[in-house]
Amino acid sequence: MKKFNTVVHMPLGLHARPANRLIKTALQFKSSIQIIKGDKEADGKRLLSVMALGVKQGDEITVIAEGVDEAEAIHAIRKLFYDN
After folding, report:
1. What are the E-state strand segments in the chain?
2. pTM recorded for the entire structure
3. Beta bridge partners of 64
4. What is the strand order of the sheet 2-7 is part of?
5. Could you list the active site residues?
6. Are strands 2-7 and 60-66 parallel, antiparallel or unpaired?
7. What is the pLDDT of residue 13?
8. Domains in the chain, please, with CATH?
9. How far apart are CA 37 and CA 63, in angstroms?
10. CA pair distance 14, 20, nearest whole angstrom
11. What is the pLDDT of residues 30-39, one digit of tens each?
12. Separation between Cα atoms, residue 50 and residue 54, nearest integer Å
């Protein structure tokens, strides 16, 4: 299992467009991806699940990848957050 914490800096938070980019990135990997905000957890490969977290600018989230390509998945998702 690999994970990282980040504060969301996107002005509108994790709304439809950035959430969709996250899903597309997560779907490239075999590992399971979980997004955690507070006491809520979402399947990182399901758009409605991620959107239901209601992640806003300034919120801290944890991303967890578990599986055969977890290191690559975490690297790609971390890059997505820090490039935007």
Report:
1. 2-7, 32-37, 40-43, 60-66
2. 0.93
3. 3, 34
4. 2-7, 60-66, 32-37, 40-43
5. 15
6. antiparallel
7. 92
8. 2-83 (3.30.1340.10)
9. 9
10. 9
11. 999 999 999 9
12. 8
Residues 40-74 have pLDDT tens digits of 999 999 999 999 999 999 999 999 999 999 999 99
Amino acid present at 72: E
Quote the tokens at residue 82. 């820090």
Residue 59 structure tokens: 């919120």
- For the chain, what is the largest distance between any 2 Cα atoms, rounded to a whole number of angstroms? 33
Which residues touch 84 (CB under 8 Å, ≥6 apart)?
9, 10, 18, 21
Residue with the two structure tokens 């990848």: 65
Look at residues 82, 80, 84, 83 and name the one whose alpha carbon lies nearest to residue 29: 80
Which two structure tokens, joined as six digits, stand for 76? Answer: 């790609």
What is the DSSP pairing of strand 60-66 with strand 40-43? unpaired
